[in-house]
Amino acid sequence: LMDVEFTVEDNVLYILQCRVGKRTGIAALKIATDLVEKNNLISPRDAVAKYVNVEHIEQVIHPTFRRPTFTSLGGGIDSWNVLAEGLAASPGCASGRIAFTSADAIKMHKLGQKVILVREETSAEDVGGMHASEGFLTARGGMTSHAAVVARGWGKPCVAGTKSMHFVDHEYHVAPHPRLEHIDLTTHPDALEPADTPRTIVERSVVFEEYPDVSFRKGDFISIDGTRGEVIEGEKELEPLGTAVKDNKALMDFMEWVDDIPSETVVYANCDTEKEIRFAMETFGAKGVGLCRTEHMFLASPDRVRCVRQLFLASDEDARAKALADIEPILRYDFTNLLHAVGHEKSITIRLLDPPVHEFLPKDTELDDPEILEEITKYCGVSETTLRAKIAKLRETNPMLGNRGCRLGISHPGITAMTTRAIAHAYYDAHEKTGIQPVVKIMIPLVATVSEYLQQVHIIDREMHAAYLARRHTLRFAKEHFESRLAKEREYELDYHPFKVGCMLETPRSCLIAKNLIDIEDVGEENFPLRASFFSLGTNDLTQMTFGYSRDDSSFFQAYEREKVALVDPFEILDWDGVGKLIKIALNEITEEEKEEETDKDETGKPKSRPRRLRRLAEVSACGEHAGNPKSIEFFVRNKINVVSCSAFRVLGARLAVAKAQIHTEEEDEERERE
Which pick of 117, 334, 337, 387 has the fewest CB atoms within 10 Å? Predict the structure, then answer.
């Protein structure tokens, strides 16, 4: 499709310019399927390779704005004005009234209003308001911030790291009016406060650097485009979405053609709830769960955050043990539901607790509120002085490189032990109820040394074996009642059959010592080998540590792009030259050449010459945000990464990106052979 501009002068046709024509996602799918099914003009493989791209797929499953065909040239706030640009943290578009707090978002939603939650940054306390909002706009945070990750998981648009957006608080002092002093405050307590206590009202607004004279208050309309990273003035009309994914015949037919392109790389989803798993696997076609983040279960609600705060701010070890005991049944229940959703013989990788401790600690605004402060000291069982001292001690100068990942598990071994017990008993609970045998993988995050990995894997092995001894009756029951119906690929086993244990390659050093992690000779209970049986590329942290850029504050890349210092944000598109080289080093470390069998000889008895065959010693997946980016997926396909795991709403696009990359790689290989 070409868009051609021309003119005719003196009966002469002049072509002024031409460019590739734009088409909507629905139109692209319709054209591709018609050319294949109705006209037989192209093959399904050509349709996948050339006629539909990932952006088209995202348009079909995410709302987009009905944009004007031209932009007015006047100054000031016009009919289509981009107020600011931030990070395109989660695709899709939304319009609504501004809400600055979760409480306001919930109230406005109950009144039937569409809401955009506008915050400096979000946290677990905002979950209720985030549910009530159409989308999120934040001043701080990067592609892996709380708002960004939640938005992608829920399929809501988000613009994060909008540095040119500033919050302004206006204070108004309200004094009693003399004419109202006769009001009986005992019968009208809300009419007026006592004369000696004038009220102070704080009204928040937001301004943008490009338009400093225009402020936006609660209730004003604003729009966000999470695909482009734009903040737009006013309420904008959305394009009507196509039919539901499963009812969209053109999309379903096209995705069948996508899956007909064979590849060594399959697409999983990053999911943290039963609902997300079912949605990702049943609606979007994910083959499993490549990343389940334990911390998202802890951060799922304020009540759970309270339990974790009790753990870190406990007055003594007994109080900390009680906090762990309170958390374990919650996680066990969650994991049981997750395993039911994953299903029989499907894979799920569960990452142990990873976030910085500061994400669980009370914020300054909470400590400044006397009522909230009293509540925190009460449920933590400490005095205000002790609480503030503990918080100060736990705060870190650089938390992203501080006490998180395996370091947190080493500092608090009880957390690793408790989480493993919850996973193990959840598996037996699901197994006992329905007979399913999901493939469970426990992943240790942020490993940099073999000793770190060993310290954690010994705890995991000990707890797995203890759970096995306690639940052997479950295995016998399930074998008796379910084996004949479900045991197809692998038989039900009564012997000790522990989960797979592996680690993330997300520090530069871990990439350099990957071979050491699979050469470990230590064994656990019943001689279970403790070496890493799989790896997952944590490209968010790997990019952060390789570049030395903060992954939660990469908005300076707007200046980099403007000044041509860098053309792309490495947190959005994988850096092939630097981060990619580290990944290749790791892959080479864990790949070996297959030995030739003695039977492969010619008539003279000499070994036959055959292509060099390589064997990877451990499965490798990619679970960072790059796993949903087409250009990054091309790198993973070229390097035969087994799994790419992305947010649920990016699964369809990732499946297409894998197929396109596979076709492109095969075409290049054929071209080289011809040369």
Answer: 337
Question: Which of 651, 656, 44 is CA-nearest to residue 288?
Answer: 651
CA distance 528 to 544: 35
Residues 6 or more apart whose Cβ sits within 8 Å of residue 227: 55, 58, 62, 64, 88, 91, 92, 93, 157
* Dihedral of alpha carbons 317, 321, 326, 332, sign: positive
Instruction: Say how far apart CA 572 and CA 227 lie, in whole Å.
Output: 12
Rg over alpha carbons for the chain, rounded to the nearest Å, is 28
From the list 93, 380, 503, 623, the catalytic residue is 623
The distance from CA 458 to its chain's CA centroid, rounded to whole angstroms, is 29
Answer yes or no: 481 catalytic: no
Catalytic residue among 56, 146, 296, 425: 146
pLDDT less than 50: residues of the chain: 70-78, 185, 192-193, 195
- Output phi, psi for 356, to 5 deg: -60, 150
**Distance separating alpha carbons of residues 460 and 419, to the nearest angstrom:** 9
Rounded Cα distance, 576 and 632, in Å: 8
pLDDT of residue 493: 76
Contacts of residue 326, defined as CB under 8 A and 6 or more positions apart, other chains included, come to: 307, 310
Tell me how far apart the alpha carbons of residues 544 and 446 are, in angstroms, rounded to a whole number: 12
pLDDT of residue 192: 47
Q: Which helix (H) or strand (E) holds 580?
A: helix 579-589
Kindly give, in sequence order, each residue whose CB lies less than 8 Å from that of residue 29, ignoring residues fewer than 6 positions away: 52, 56, 60, 248, 250, 251, 254
What is residue 608's predicted lDDT score, i.e. its pLDDT?
A: 65
> For the segment 660-672, what is each residue's pLDDT rounded down to a tens digit?
999 999 999 888 8
Query: Residue type for 197, please?
Result: T
